Amino acid sequence: xxxxxxxxxxxxxxxxxxxxxxxxxxxxxxxxxxxxxxxxxxxxxxxxxxxxxxxxxxxxxxxxxxxxxxxxxxxxxxxxxxxxxxxxxxxxxxxxxxxxxxxxxxxxxxxxxxxxxxxxxxxxxxxxxxxxxxxxxxxxxxxxxxxxxxxxxxxxxxxxxxxxxxxxxxxxxxxxxxxxxxxxxxxxxxxxxxxxxxxxxxxxxxxxxxxxxxxxxxxxxxxxxxxxxxxxxxxxxxxxxxxxxxxxxxxxxxxxxxxxxxxxxxxxxxxxxxxxxxxxxxxxxxxxxxxxxxxxxxxxxxxxxxxxxxxxxxxxxxxxxxxxxxxxxxxxxxxxxxxxxxxxxxxxxxxxxxxxxxxxxxxxxxxxxxxxxxxxxxxxxxxxxxxxxxxxxxxxxxxxxxxxxxxxxxxxxxxx
Length: 416
Ligand code: RNT
Ligand code: ZN
Fold this sequence. Notes:
The chain is α/β, with parallel strands linked by helices and about 425 residues long. It has a single domain (about 35-355), classed as Divalent-metal-dependent TIM barrel enzymes (TIM Barrel, Alpha-Beta Barrel), CATH 3.20.20.150. The protein contains 14 helices and 12 strands. The chain has helices at about 5-20, 25-35, 70-85, 115-125, 150-175, 195-210, 240-250, 270-275, 300-310, 330-350, 355-365, 365-375, 380-390, 400-410; strands at about 35-40, 90-95, 130-135, 180-185, 190, 220-225, 235, 255, 280-285, 285-290, 290-295, 320-325. The strands form 3 sheets. An 8-stranded parallel β-barrel has the order 1-2-3-4-6-8-9-12, surrounded by 5 helices. Helix 3 (about 70-85) links the parallel strand 1 and strand 2. It starts with a helix and ends in a 5-residue tail after the last helix. The model has no long low-confidence stretch (mean pLDDT about 95). Zinc ion binds near residues 185 and 224.
């Protein structure tokens, strides 16, 4: 693509946006500085390095496209390559099962900071900060209930695991001089009817209270709500209502995964309610298709609206952006890059909204003018600004990354 014409296109776009009070340079600068936490599990179908046990816990990857990362070196190589095709600043989101266990089996209640030391070094060398997740799934003790299990032995096993994970996250945060976001999602639920809805939720709240009691200054804990899991369709212990109440009463960060709600629910509308009552939001940007299918994120209305709500609320500094999807049916790195770039597109689009003018109209009761501007804003030269963002940051503009990914497939992943 011709650089001169891309620059020219940007100049014209800048003028066009300026006419409605939007500073495109500023929007690009904010986009560059807003970290996106890349989910390491897109590289290997959420398998990790602990054991060869398959995925359980209500989540599933579908597809068997060749080239899955099979070990820590391959995960690292793939993340590095994906990152080279994505502008802006990136973090890396690890799950506990991605520890550097050196070929030994380390049970979840035995995990230590040392299992993540090579990750911390790698992240530093690659200019990424780390985020972290405890892992309740894919283990013989996962069952249907972990932190809410009435069996004290199982419940305390998972409490110990989660406490250890918080300490690991704290060590990561300390090493990188920036808090590590640690997400707690447990799959706990029931396939069929239960007459103990309250009991399991009491147990989950009690477990979390115990886990979160330890003061760890270099990490932030967040808890993720969910609608249902596969094989756990009738009841979810950590439902949205549960975690809204939990986060509001305990002042804990709420993880909003866009796949975890009823298909017709307006997820973006939750932002302006949650922000009033919880300290911060952690986002798992995903794309549900009929259910929590974890399809690759794309630039669609749901994702656009999500970021618009965050920007309109002036809450970008209170929202941590992470991705959460796992597609094994297409080139995995391609999926990684498409979803991350789509997330940036949606954020950029939100940053380019002529908000001041729209608010002026709204305040004056000018409903027609507001709707007209919202409509016209949709066809402003957004693409020229997005291209400029990529050009400026030295990553492929437009579809140019398709070839790079095909080449990497040919040279690297197809040989696995
Ligand atoms: C599952 C949750 C959770 C996981 C990851 C792997 O429904 O969304 O965030 O996808 O932790
Ligand atoms: Zn999630």
